[in-house]
Amino acid sequence: MSTAxxxxxxxxxxxxQSIAVGSKxxxxxxxxxxxATRRSAVMLYAWCRHxxxxxxxxxxxxxxxxxxxxxxxxxxxxxxAQTHAVYAGxxxxxxxxxxxxxxxxxxxIKERYAQEHLAGFAMDVHQRHYLLIEDTLDYCxxxxxxxxxxMAQVMGVSDERTLDRACDLGMGFQLTNIARDIVEDARxxxxxxxxxxxxxxxxxxxxxxxxxxxxxxxxLAKRLVDLxxxxxxxxxxGLSALPWRSAWAVATACGVYREIGIEVEKxxxxxxxxxxxxxxxxxxxxxxxxxxxxxxxxxxxxxxxPADLWQRPLQPSVTGxxxxxxxxxxxx
Length: 332
Hints:
Helix content is about 70%, strand content about 0%. The chain is mainly α.
């Protein structure tokens, strides 16, 4: 006779399903963690995925839809309130928040990181306009860099130098995502490319998805992929500070996303004819490559982080706190 799964197992099952549908790349890499780390990593992912889906009116990261401004404001306010409730120790009803509460309790995830992540969604809700590449990088920090910081805490990282490297990995991921999804984002009214870049190549924002602009878009996508590369290189220097299985998972994830960027650049103007992804065979190859990187990272002395590489804010970021009071006010 079969027995019903425990509440703890139900949470893990929900999170595992979320990652399996939402990100095959991260799902493949997450299997390389030791069981305890994997549980926390996929449950943290489930919370991040849930928040993203709520804001974008999508399911598991796919088929985003346009949501009325009043409705999306309410959705963001709900996410803010539920996240505050987690840190206040209140019971969470939604599976994604119950999972997040467990991760917060187990690993001491900083509330600042969770708040800054939600502030990234606030940028989408408030339709922030990105004038310069620095503005785009600020967005990348909020929606992905801080996820790297939270994941690093799950892996037991506390020193600031390694946290810098974890943030860099998130930055590389997001720059790659933006390059891959330029047209898909444009179709739902989103543009993360700097206005200065668009003006330089005479690409009108309102026609970003039009086929006639594919060639100049390919130029800008290459810039994003090139911009991501030093972040990936920097992130590799953090492998030696991680438990070896965590280093294996991180190195594999880095390799998978890097290949997505390489493929976007390779396809040029055809990069948006279909969604760029890595095949199962490619992922298997990258798993073995990641193992090699994890093994050779043990005890290795890495160079200092480049001084000219974009630096995460070591204090709460101005942008995040400017967005946060307005968001919090919606919840009242």
